[in-house]
Design goal:
Length: about 500
């Protein structure tokens, strides 16, 4: 009897490389990990990583987490993040990624919306106690049954995963590896509000393929991922790209330029994946002389409307690939030509690589009737972005929609026919990877007291930055903490205009 074709999962890709080269280097920690988390940096082969994944996977099963349940993860870009994601998948769990900049209120909302059964975190990241944040959020989430973390000084009631890694692996359960099964849940903010976005394995792999094929990443390459991993783009650009090329994944906790440069040179990284503005900054600093091992640079644009006006890439030995990010809806890439300028992006189906005839279709770009950019394809979770049912029409079937409206304003360039992205979605602000409704600023400013100011200023690196001023600065920080803002967003508040 013929067996139906089963698409691969992330763990399938990992085990393929494990069988081929078990003693090859697999994972490299940030050089400054001791400062960031208190752990010493690790270097792991595929065999060592597999042992750690097996131990964590068995522990999740022994802790009573049922197959297909949701496990929430809030971790920095370190080896522990990769091991936890792959271990959760091996145990048949679905991973919900929680950004490090999230507030207590958002953590609680995400845990409740996804009915998460467990949460994994780090004791401290950059001096902030994430273990306390997780415990407080878990106390308000009815579904949470298990809280665990890496690092020292964990609160009472939180299990230590460092102890799990120090023991021999237990017995895990058999899980059918099928790329159509749910793999992750990320979270987006749209005009309709907070939105969980589930994805299967094949969708994540499609995102990684779109980047790796467009950038022409070689098999066995050492990939430096310097992009926060707690999103679809972050997972696709780190985990998926690494597993597809079967090489080594070097991780960098964003951002320390000197540490990043030192790590690229010491670990002889051939591919750099980083926010596009950071990549352009590095490209202007004599990249060939300072980081000679690089052969590919992938720049991720959180503000894709800025690509067309960006500076030329002047490091021909390491071509730049622009990757346009549209929240959690999807992405597409376009490798720059010999002149170093961004290439025109045409509507319709696009392959990977884009300019190669007969290449596999990575997705489709379209202009919606609203004058906004739409996406469709294997990586695009159309059902998650379905428009809300009109009030009073609950019994009326809505016409099916086979694309996601990203909300980014766009138009067609008349001479060339190319898509021009002109503005981000209205009413939404982005500070790094943290997106929120602009109306939230009014509530935050009101809590700061009389005479206070809080606004979002355009920022070329992160989209926007929060800037504020208050007569009583200590009271302002206290008010923002009461509101639930993550300490990383509060600690930089200044008497004069400065980033929050």
């Amino acid at each position: 009897m013929n067996q139906p074709a089963v698409s691969p999962t992330l763990d399938t890709l990992f085990q393929r490389t494990l069988m081929r080269q078990p003693h090859a280097p697999a994972l490299l920690d940030p050089l400054n990990k001791a400062r960031v988390t208190g752990h010493q940096p690790r270097r792991m082969t595929y065999a060592e990583a597999d042992t750690a994944i097996e131990a964590l996977s068995a522990h999740f099963v022994e802790s009573g987490l049922p197959a297909n349940s949701v496990i929430a993860i809030q971790l920095p870009a370190t080896v522990e993040f990769v091991l936890t994601v792959l271990a959760a998948h091996r145990a048949g769990l679905v991973v919900a990624v929680l950004p490090l900049l999230w507030r207590h209120a958002e953590l609680t909302a995400a845990l409740n919306r996804t009915a998460a059964r467990a949460i994994v975190t780090m004791s401290k990241v950059d001096g902030v106690s994430y273990s306390d944040l997780a415990m407080h959020a878990a106390a308000e989430a009815f579904s949470i049954r298990y809280v665990c973390g890496f690092g020292a000084d964990l609160p009472e009631g939180m299990a230590s995963l460092d102890d799990v890694l120090a023991r021999p692996p237990g017995t895990t359960r058999a899980v059918i590896q099928d790329g159509r099964k749910a793999a992750m849940i990320s979270f987006d903010v749209t005009a309709e509000g907070f939105r969980p976005v589930p994805r299967p394995h094949f969708s994540l792999i499609a995102g990684g393929l779109a980047m790796s094929l467009e950038a022409d990443i070689k098999q066995g390459a050492t990939v430096m991922a310097a992009f926060t991993p707690m999103s679809f783009a972050g997972l696709a650009s780190s985990l998926a790209v690494w597993l597809l090329c079967g090489g080594t994944l070097a991780l960098h906790h964003p951002f320390e330029n000197d540490v990043l440069e030192q790590q690229i040179n010491e670990q002889e990284c051939e591919v750099l994946i980083a926010p596009a503005q950071l990549a352009l900054r590095l490209g202007d600093a004599d990249l060939a002389a300072r980081m000679p091992s690089l052969r590919n640079v992938i720049g991720l644009w959180r503000a894709p409307e800025q690509v067309a006006a960006s500076d030329a890439w002047i490091a021909p030995h390491a071509p730049l690939t622009d990757v346009y990010l549209f929240g959690e809806a999807g992405l597409f890439g376009a490798r720059r030509g010999e002149d170093g300028m961004p290439v025109a992006v045409m509507p319709g189906p696009h392959g990977a690589p884009r300019e190669q005839s007969g290449s596999s279709i990575a997705g489709e770009i379209l202009l919606t009737p609203r004058g906004t950019l739409g996406l469709r394809g294997a990586m695009v979770p159309i059902a998650a972005y379905a428009p809300p049912q009109p009030v009073g029409d609950t019994l009326t079937a809505q016409p099916p929609r086979d694309y996601v409206d990203t909300g980014y304003a766009a138009r067609l360039d008349r001479p060339s026919g190319a898509i021009c992205i002109t503005a981000p979605p209205s009413g939404i602000m982005a500070v790094g990877g943290y997106r929120f409704l602009s109306n939230d600023l009014q509530e935050w400013a009101r809590r700061l007291g009389q005479g206070a100011l809080l606004t979002a200023l355009p920022d070329r690196l992160s989209g926007h930055r929060l800037a504020g001023r208050a007569q009583d600065n200590a009271r302002a920080r206290e008010a923002l903490n009461e509101l639930g803002l993550n300490p990383l967003m509060v600690e930089a508040f200044r008497d004069r205009s400065g980033p929050v």
